[in-house]
Design brief:
This protein is mainly beta and 145 residues long. It has two domains: 64 residues; 52 residues, no CATH class. The strands form two sheets. A five-stranded antiparallel sheet has the order 4-3-2-1-5. β3 and β4 form a beta hairpin. The radius of gyration is 18 Å and the shape is globular.
Length: 145
Amino acid sequence: MRPKLPDYGTFTHWPEDGHARLHPDDIAIINRVIPSSRVFRRSRFDGVFYQFEYGKSLQFRLRPCMWLALDWEGIDVGDQVEVIGLGMTRDLFVARVVEMRFNRRNRQIEYTLSQAGQVHPRLYLANELRNLDNQPKLRKPQAGG
């Protein structure tokens, strides 16, 4: 049974069967990013290979294999987010998600943010962020009504 796509997960170990699972054109990319704590988006299946993405610039293809499936928290690499202010302990600001990593010890996805070209040293959790890219858009009123 195929999973409902898109879905999210991480490769904490190298896929079984080694390079036999990799698309031949994507071997160099996959060797750089797997195994890791990165949270990938699995977006489609062509009947042989799944398409994986990490933001808009990193994509690769793998045959079906084991990975650690994770619940999507409504945020992707590349999304513009607002950090939710919390009194005097956390400032409110807008930034872009540049990393999305799974912390195995805490079993949570942690987000790295960049603002005006500067990467924030602190990691954020989904409940501290509001995705600005996934906000509903209002339709323009139609003329005459």
